[in-house]
Write a structure and sequence with these properties.
- With 403 residues, the protein is of the alpha/beta class.
- It has a single domain, classed as Alkaline Phosphatase, subunit A.
- 34% of the residues lie in helices and 14% in strands.
- The chain contains 12 helices and 15 strands.
- A hairpin with a 3-residue loop joins strand 1 and strand 2.
- Helix 3 packs across helix 9, helix 6 runs antiparallel to helix 7 and helix 7 packs across helix 8.
Length: 403
């Protein structure tokens, strides 16, 4: 889309990023809350993506306590059979995942085992690109999978609140020129220059000095200011229905709950929780991560369950890869491949899905995947948004009975 024959929307956004006083947020607002074009009718669900960055050790999360090969491969990092929160005679949850174990028992938590893809990549960056693009090509495939979902779902009808990321690093999955996301670490950091004179001065000095472009930029700035106020107001007014622990992850998930219940129009909300690259002294660090994850996510899901909008929300918890089966010499584990993902929510069909990968029939020392991660995406795309999975993923993948 060209503006007055001079600059396109990406150039406008790039130019505005340096002049509008945006603190702690990525620029992602070409046109405030105005919308145009047509969109498909969606079921009204919100999808929350919780990324465990660094490569979460799936074997210490869903523990195969009934498999002798697990105890042979793990000494310093293993979780003993009497410690696990049992799901059945073969597997159990990490002992810190008390709240999630209760949700599993209530049928509101689905565990999809052995999730991965062919010829896995052990690089954090490349593996994340593959997950975010939903393609082995990574960023060469084009925009992120959520960006493609927004295009399929909303067409050229843009609303800046459709996609929101709460965290410092914007995931590539959300990247889109036509449907760019809002991103901020915390709502109080999402603040545009609120002095009209300052905005005017900044715009006057910007490269887009033609009057037509300047008028457009003023509209963008005013709309962005409106969005900033709307986000901060929604979060400030929100009264949680659950007690969240005092953790950064919990604070971010509380923001996500506020956005789900605000009516602001969020369709996908992304949150990141990092620290999972546990090469050294894993047991203590991973125990702490599991405790934070359990307390924060359990409170978030309990909060959501108290409202109609919250009960329709679905949360996917994933990591870019698991860890190797055999631990290393530093009482930790190195980058691996397949791992479980969680799908949670009041309307989720809980239980075990997929097949636990063999601990003896390995792929180059790693767990061989049994469920392609794009099957999970296809399930959520179709179940949450009534969009054909192939329209977003480029081909059809069999869905799972998760919703």
């Amino acid at each position: 889309m060209k503006l007055r024959g001079a600059i396109d929307r990406r150039e406008v956004l790039r130019g505005l990023g340096g002049v509008l006083g945006l603190s702690g947020a990525s620029l992602a607002l070409p046109a405030g809350v105005r919308v145009w074009g047509s969109a498909k009718e969606a079921p009204g669900r919100t999808l929350i993506l919780l990324q465990l960055s660094g490569g979460n050790d799936g074997l210490s999360t869903v523990v195969p306590h009934g498999d002798d090969a697990y105890f042979e491969a793990r000494q310093a990092t293993r979780i003993e059979s009497q410690e696990v929160l049992r799901l059945d005679e073969y597997r159990g949850l990490h002992p810190e995942l008390i709240g999630l174990h209760e949700l599993f028992g209530a049928g509101k938590l689905a565990l999809v085992e052995g999730v991965g893809y062919p010829e896995p990549n052990r690089s954090h960056f490349k593996a994340l690109d593959i997950w975010h693009a939903a393609s082995r090509q990574g960023r060469r495939a084009g925009i992120g999978w959520v960006g493609r979902l927004m295009q399929a779902l909303n067409g050229d009808r843009f609303d800046p609140h459709h996609v929101v990321h709460v965290g410092e690093k914007l995931p590539y999955s959300l990247f889109s020129n036509e449907h760019p996301p809002i991103a901020f670490a915390l709502p109080r950091a999402y603040r545009w220059a609120e002095n009209e004179a300052d905005v005017e001065e900044a715009l006057e000095s910007s490269p887009a000095s033609e009057e037509g472009n300047l008028s457009f930029l003023r509209d963008v700035a005013r709309d962005a200011l409106q969005s900033s106020r709307a986000i901060r107001s929604a979060v400030a007014r929100y009264e949680s229905r659950a007690e969240y622990p005092k953790e950064r992850l919990a604070e971010r998930l509380r923001v996500a709950a506020a956005l789900v219940n605000s009516g602001i129009g969020a369709q996908v909300i992304s949150v990141e929780f990092d620290g999972f690259d546990t090469h050294n002294e894993q047991r203590r660090g991973h125990d702490r991560l599991m405790r934070i994850l359990d307390g924060s996510l359990s409170a978030f899901l309990a909060d959501l369950e108290e409202t109609q909008a919250g009960r329709k929300a679905v949360c996917l918890v994933f990591s870019e890869f698991g860890r190797r089966v055999k631990e290393n010499g530093s009482r930790g584990t190195d980058h691996g491949a397949a791992a479980p993902v969680f799908v949670a929510g009041a309307e989720v069909k809980g239980g075990l899905h997929g097949a636990h990968p063999s601990l003896t029939e390995l792929h180059r020392g790693d767990l061989a995947f049994t469920t392609d991660f794009r099957r999970v995406y296809a399930t959520l795309i179709e179940g949450c948004f009534a969009v054909p999975g192939a329209e977003v993923l480029g081909k059809s993948y069999p869905t799972l009975p998760l919703l």
